[in-house]
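Sequence design from tokenized structure. All designs in this work follow the same two-part layout: the structure record, then the generated sequence. An example of the structure record is given first.
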């Protein structure tokens, strides 16, 4: 028989023992589902991180106050040690293109009669360029607004749609911790940032008018964002910033820095490591399930061989060669595993669709995921089906025909 005849014969044999076939491929289904989800999860994480870093720029450095130390215990920090003056001084470094400061506060916000607790960022105008936060409606605040501490406000598109549906938000008054601010612009931002916050709910004010509940000294800020000039190595920028801050903060000798820096490229590496870890973990689950499924298929094929001894004897008696019998049972094992592969692929597609719908992020399955799934399933069938098929091919026709 040719390949397609062998495939049809294998399907007939599997249909004759439906329950046994379904139970045999369960391990393969679970294994293939795990393998496909592993690949899809890793691809999604890498794509998400690359997208965020492409939007923000990989040549950025974040500067935070270091944690305070009391005895041998590190605490969360008493008072930030970074200032607006630090940001201005860093911006003058030859290797730096832009530097901006921020103050983050979580305050009660009143939109007319509606109110909720939201995060409000006090920033300098350069921060909008650094973070790629364009204004789609109205205008942004400028350096004059920062110098005068003017109470003006930029809000995200999600907040604008939520509280000003059908109305123009420009010129509306919003109270932050009881103090009135005027909306002058709407930001064209959406989705989640690297810090997990919804950028559609951004609220930006001049840094000198930030309603922070922390007891900060005048000019003290929570963090700095630094953008390197094109062609400048991030390691050099990090070294320049550290040397400048140590000099400005009068840190000498072996004294510990009162600040810490984070390279966004390091975040990408950490994300890639997490994605790789997830892939390895799910891959291990998939490998175990595939081995268990392969052993189950081997057992089923051995049972099938023992039940069809007379059929094997008759085929050999009328001219079938051992390689024909070997091909018949090997194709049957492969078909069994490929069916399990398609079932696992369908289960993975359903799981990916459910995750995309419930978690609100896209986790598509690529063509290569499907190719890998079917290839893995066929490989399992070949590997675990070879021994039963070879055993069937070694049977002697006269001995097969003697059995009842």
């Amino acid at each position: 028989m040719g390949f397609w005849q062998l495939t049809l014969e294998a399907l007939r044999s599997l249909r004759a023992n439906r329950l046994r076939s379904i139970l045999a491929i369960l391990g393969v289904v679970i294994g293939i589902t795990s393998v496909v989800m592993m690949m899809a999860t890793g691809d999604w994480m890498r794509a998400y991180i690359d997208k965020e870093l492409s939007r923000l720029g990989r040549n950025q450095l974040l500067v935070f106050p270091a944690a305070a130390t009391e005895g041998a215990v590190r605490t969360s920090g008493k008072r930030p040690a970074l200032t607006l003056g630090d940001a201005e001084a860093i911006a003058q470094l030859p290797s730096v293109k832009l530097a901006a400061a921020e103050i983050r506060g979580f305050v009660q916000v009143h939109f007319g009669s509606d109110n909720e607790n939201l995060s409000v960022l006090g920033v300098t105008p350069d921060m909008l360029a650094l973070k790629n936060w364009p204004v789609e409606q109205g205008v942004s605040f400028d350096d004059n607004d920062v110098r005068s501490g003017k109470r003006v406000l930029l809000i995200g598109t999600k907040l604008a749609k939520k509280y000003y549906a059908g109305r123009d938000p420009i010129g509306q008054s919003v109270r932050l911790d009881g103090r009135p601010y005027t909306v002058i612009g709407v930001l064209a931002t959406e989705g989640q940032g690297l810090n997990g916050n919804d950028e559609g709910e951004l609220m930006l004010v001049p840094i000198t008018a930030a309603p922070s509940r922390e007891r900060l000294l005048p000019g003290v800020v929570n963090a700095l964002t630094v953008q390197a000039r094109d062609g400048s190595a991030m390691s050099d920028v990090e070294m320049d910033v550290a040397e400048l801050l140590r000099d400005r903060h009068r840190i000498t000798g072996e004294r510990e820095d009162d600040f810490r820096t984070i390279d966004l490229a390091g975040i990408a590496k950490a994300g890639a490591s997490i994605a790789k870890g997830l892939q390895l973990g799910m891959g291990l689950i998939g490998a175990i399930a595939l081995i268990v499924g392969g052993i189950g298929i081997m057992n089923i094929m051995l049972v099938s061989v023992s039940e069809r001894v007379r059929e094997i004897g008759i085929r050999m008696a009328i001219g079938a060669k051992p390689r024909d019998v070997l091909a018949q049972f090997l194709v049957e094992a492969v078909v069994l595993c490929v069916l399990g592969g398609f079932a696992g692929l369908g289960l993975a597609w359903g799981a990916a669709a459910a995750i995309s719908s419930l978690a609100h992020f896209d986790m598509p399955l690529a063509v290569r995921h499907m190719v890998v799934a079917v290839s893995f399933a066929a490989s399992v069938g070949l590997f675990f089906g070879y021994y039963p098929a070879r055993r069937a091919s070694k049977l002697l026709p006269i001995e097969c025909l003697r059995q009842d």
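DSSP finds twelve helices and 14 strands in the chain. We note this feature because it recurs in several other targets discussed in the main text.
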